[in-house]
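Just wondering, does anyone understand what follows?

——
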Amino acid sequence: DGNHLTGSIPTTLGNMTGLRQLLLSNNQFTGVIPAALGSITNLVYLNISYNPLLSGPIPPQLGNLSQLQALLLAYSGLTDMIPSSLSNLTSLQQLYLTGNELTGPIMSQIHQMSSLRILQLGDNKLDDNIPPNLLALPNLEQLSLYENEFEGSIPSGTTVFTGLKSFTAYGSGLSGAIPEWFSDQKLLHTFNIAYNGFSGELPPGLMGEGSFKLEFRTNNNPNLTGKLPDKVSAVTGLVDISHCNFTFQDFLSVHKSFSGSTFIYAPQGLVDVQKNSSERIGFTFEFTAEVDREIY
């Protein structure tokens, strides 16, 4: 791990069948991830992240690692689709595939990965619709889908999980309404859906009941409207609702109660009060005339 190793990952590692942990991250390996690693059936932890000179697909044989609890393959030049065989990893708790060139859909059998707590799929080229079976992961806590090429909306319906803490999907190509099930996620502390095509109103219970709330970003979704959820006022870090279609009355009470680090609310597509009135109602800077009329 972090030893500046070069060359190919040795296929002979597959003979070390008693190995429990294999850390190969932060090196300069070239070539592909060898299929032989799927023979190390006692592996619990496999980390090959941050090997940018690697290439090729994720070997389907990794789906044989039935005891694996953490699979980290981030930022390692991987291509092609996520193999459906990974759904066999029913003990897997952490899956990090961030920062590759992966394509195609999220596997429809993902609900079989019943132990999964952290699913990091950001910064790839994944497409198609998000499978509804994603809502059937009972232990999901972190879901990152940002900077992909998805189609459609976030699946609606009822989730099996209620402990989601972080949801990041900025720049992911998603649209439609924000599902009501977000109101059931009482521990949610990070919510970032910026730079998408979402529309309609936000669920009123969004941002949950937990005392720790880190970030809330809906910016650059010009068709989002309606009242900002009350719990947003408890965010301690950044709130950015700019470039949406909220009005002063939609977020005034939340802004007055806000004591976090930064609250960005301008510009908006439409503002329902006279220009230059922001100072009168307690805002720290004024909307410009351009913001007081339709700008999209």
The chain has one helix and 20 strands. Residues 29 and 185 are 40 Å apart (CA to CA). The longest helix spans residues 248-257.
